[in-house]
Write a structure and sequence with these properties.
- By secondary structure, the chain is an alpha/beta fold.
- The chain has one domain: Metallo-beta-lactamase, Chain A, CATH 3.60.15.10.
- Helices cover 30% and strands 25% of the residues.
- α6 runs antiparallel to α7.
- The protein binds zinc ion.
């Protein structure tokens, strides 16, 4: 595990060379908000990192309910029974193994490693909706990668912890745009069109730092986010053109 610090934000990266999976600590007055819980074996490293910083972990906040973001949740909740578990109301359903869709949502299957019903023992204590606050963090609903994906903006500094709304590893991209060098976030994305809308919303926040689930932290990320959004727009457009010509070609 490698720890990198930028202001109030500490990135904990597991398997940084092979398949980087990140969790984050955001420093608050009362301790550390852990954002995401990485992989099942990551609990030890996360607890050791908090000990090294010298602060308690009063809360565990999840960007979304995929296996590589909730892996150590149960082990951490056992080690820290007082920690508040916080997730979006929408992805709390995924956390409980419910992959059903709501009527107004794009009706494509939820992808990626969603836990089987009953596989995660920890129950969320607090359910978030867009605009809620968690300490210094503003919760921003960024559906797309999963229906209930959330990003968190540190209102003190403009640092943005965005889960898998963007990827940095394998080339910066909006979730859903396939990057051949690291295609996994795209393969696990529910709705690339929703993800693109959410990415534009994040850019409007003008973050000063972008911290995502896979890849290193980026300072002054707006230019790179703009380019990634444009690339995702092009790829969605050419896909829908491809689909249209396919339909025409199949007409009798
Ligand atoms: Zn994910």
């Amino acid at each position: 595990m490698r720890m990198t610090t930028s202001g109030n934000v500490h990135q904990l990266s597991f398997m940084p060379r092979l398949f980087p999976v990140n969790a984050y600590f955001v420093e608050e007055k009362d301790g550390l908000t852990l954002i995401d819980a990485a992989l099942p074996y990551s609990a030890k490293g996360i607890l050791a990192a908090a000990a090294r910083i010298g602060k308690p972990i009063p809360r565990i906040l999840l960007t979304h309910a995929h296996g590589d973001h909730i892996g150590a949740l149960d082990a951490l909740k056992t080690a820290l029974p007082g920690a508040e578990v916080i997730v979006s109301a929408r992805d709390a359903r995924l956390l409980s193994g419910d992959k059903s869709l709501d009527p107004g949502e794009p009706q494509s299957p939820i992808r990626g490693s969603v836990p089987k019903p009953g596989a995660v023992r920890a129950r969320p204590d607090t359910l978030l909706v867009d605009g809620d606050r968690v300490g210094s963090l503003l919760a921003v609903a960024t559906p797309g990668h999963t229906p209930g994906s959330m990003s968190f903006l540190d209102t003190r500094t403009g640092a943005l912890i965005a889960g898998d709304a963007f990827q940095v590893r394998g080339g910066m991209a909006v979730s859903g745009k396939v990057q051949p060098l690291f295609p996994f976030p795209a393969m696990a994305t529910w709705s690339p069109a929703e993800a693109l809308r959410s990415a534009s919303r994040l850019l409007e926040l003008k973050p000063t730092l972008l911290a995502v689930g896979h890849g290193r932290m980026l300072d002054d990320p707006c230019e790179a986010m703009t380019a990634a959004i444009q690339a995702a727009e092009r790829s969605l457009q050419s896909e829908s053109k491809g689909r249209a010509s396919h339909v025409t070609a199949n007409r009798p």
